[in-house]
């Protein structure tokens, strides 16, 4: 649908998750359930780490931030999607679209930097345990967390500027939120340069973060294998496995969606994949760290016990 430039700059029309109206109520129930579990689970993790003194360590400080990011970036997408599923008119203003795109990119792009920081924390904890409290002081942890957010913010500014610098010929976005690929498909002009900027910058960020994580764990393996107790080795491998599973799922999905030219994108496939990334992964991150972490499970039991005994 061709529209005048002024209209395109005023609002966009979101085509949504499905073209079948009879599925809207079912999809609403499914997304509401998943979003509720994701939000409550991550908020519970934040509360648990906040009120449990024995979880006031650097790794749980970063896990606290990860839960906050997961809760926030789901909330950037879910409320608007839920409203659209029960509305006939699925519109979003140009500024609202840009804001949604910016905050989603900022939070999602912060995660690879945060995973890198968490890998560094694990490296220091296992390879330099005697200096751990000195190296990973509260001030250093805060600086590393701020650095991760600055990295995500810089990445988001670049992608938002790169995307909304385009001239859009159509106002129909074949998606349920404002994402790069469907917005590129609306462009009146060739997006080759914009594709190059996206792929090159995203590749550099992903490569830097992934290589740092992998290098950290290569250095970690030897000390874990040398641990005298089987319990120590098991705990070390369990912690590392949880982190590597989360990194693999998050970064693998991110690479699949974004690291290829927009001309090669199949928007319907991207739509399904983004559901996994925007809704399922924030829920899985919390579950993986909770179910595989004895300290978190013990803290949760204590919190439940205090609640029933009080």
From TrEMBL:
InterPro entries: GPCR_Rhodpsn, GPCR_Rhodpsn_7TM, Olfact_rcpt. It comes from the Eukaryota. It is found in: Membrane. It is a multi-pass membrane protein. Keywords: G-protein coupled receptor, Membrane, Receptor, Transducer, Transmembrane, Transmembrane helix. Pfam families: 7tm_4 (PF13853). Putative odorant or sperm cell receptor. This is Olfactory receptor family 9 subfamily M member 6.
């Amino acid at each position: 649908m061709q529209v005048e430039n002024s209209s395109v700059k005023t609002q966009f029309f979101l085509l949504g998750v499905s073209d079948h109206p009879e599925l809207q109520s079912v999809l609403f129930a499914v997304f509401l359930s998943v979003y509720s579990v994701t939000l409550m689970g991550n908020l519970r993790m934040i509360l648990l780490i906040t009120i449990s003194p024995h979880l006031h360590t650097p790794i749980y400080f970063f896990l606290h931030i990860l839960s906050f990011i997961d809760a926030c970036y789901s909330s950037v997408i879910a409320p608007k999607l839920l409203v659209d599923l029960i509305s006939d008119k699925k519109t979003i203003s140009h500024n609202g679209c840009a804001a949604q795109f910016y905050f989603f990119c900022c939070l999602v792009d912060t995660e690879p930097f945060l995973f890198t920081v968490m890998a560094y924390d694990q490296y220091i904890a296992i390879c330099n345990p005697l200096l751990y409290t000195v190296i990973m002081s509260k001030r250093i942890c805060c600086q590393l967390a701020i650095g991760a957010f600055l990295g995500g913010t810089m990445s988001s500014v670049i992608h938002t500027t790169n995307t909304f610098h385009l001239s859009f010929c159509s106002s129909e976005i074949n998606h349920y939120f404002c994402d790069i690929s469907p917005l590129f498909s609306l462009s009146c002009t060739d997006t080759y340069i914009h594709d190059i900027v996206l792929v090159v910058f995203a590749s550099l960020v992903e490569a830097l973060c992934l290589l740092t994580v992998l290098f950290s764990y290569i250095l970690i393996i030897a000390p874990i294998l040398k641990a005298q107790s089987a319990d120590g080795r098991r705990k070390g491998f369990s912690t590392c496995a949880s982190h590597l599973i989360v990194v693999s799922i998050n970064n693998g999905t991110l690479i699949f969606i974004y690291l290829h030219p927009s001309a090669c994108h199949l928007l319907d496939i991207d739509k399904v994949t983004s559901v996994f990334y925007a809704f399922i992964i924030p829920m899985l991150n919390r579950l993986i760290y909770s179910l595989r972490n004895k300290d978190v499970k013990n803290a949760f039991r204590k919190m439940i016990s205090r609640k029933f005994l009080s």
